[in-house]
Amino acid sequence: MTKDVFRFEEPPPAKRYMHKATAARLRENPGQWALIAVYDQRTNAGSMRRRISQGLGENWQRPGDFEAQVRRIEDEFKLYARYTGEGKEQSDE
């Protein structure tokens, strides 16, 4: 079903910019867990958890710099993350 809507408004920031801001805020508070997203499907929450934990993408840097966990609360899947700064430098060898 499509709902007809017309209004002038600015689009929200792209997800990558939201991730950049989230990663920066976590770096400012090392070791502190934060709720960073809420999903309606476990697969989506799990996919983002893996990206963060494995250091995939420019915002999450090296594997191990961030930790992430998903918790189911009623019908929602909440994604928590924290910055540890314990990632390993990648070798060019």
Spell out the blueprint of helices and strands.
Elements: H1 15-27, E1 34-39, H2 42-53, E2 66-73, E3 76-83
Antiparallel strand pairs: 1-3, 2-3
Which structural traits does this protein have?
93 residues; alpha+beta; Alpha-Beta Plaits
Characterise this structure.
With 93 residues, the protein is of the alpha+beta class. It has a domain at 15-21 and 33-83: Alpha-Beta Plaits (2-Layer Sandwich). The chain is 27% helix and 24% strand. The protein is built from 2 helices and 3 strands. It has helices spanning 15-27, 42-53; strands at 34-39, 66-73, 76-83. A hairpin with a 2-residue loop joins strand 2 (66-73) and strand 3. The longest helix is centred in the N-terminal third of the chain and has 13 residues, at 15-27. The radius of gyration is 16 Å and the shape is globular. The N and C termini lie far apart (54 Å).
Which strands sit side by side, in order, in the main sheet? 1-3-2
- The top level CATH class name of the domain at 15-21 and 33-83: Alpha Beta
CATH fold name of the domain at 15-21 and 33-83: Alpha-Beta Plaits
Q: What string gives the helices and strands in order?
A: HEHEE
Strand proportion, as a percent range, falls in 15-25%
Radius of gyration: 16 Å
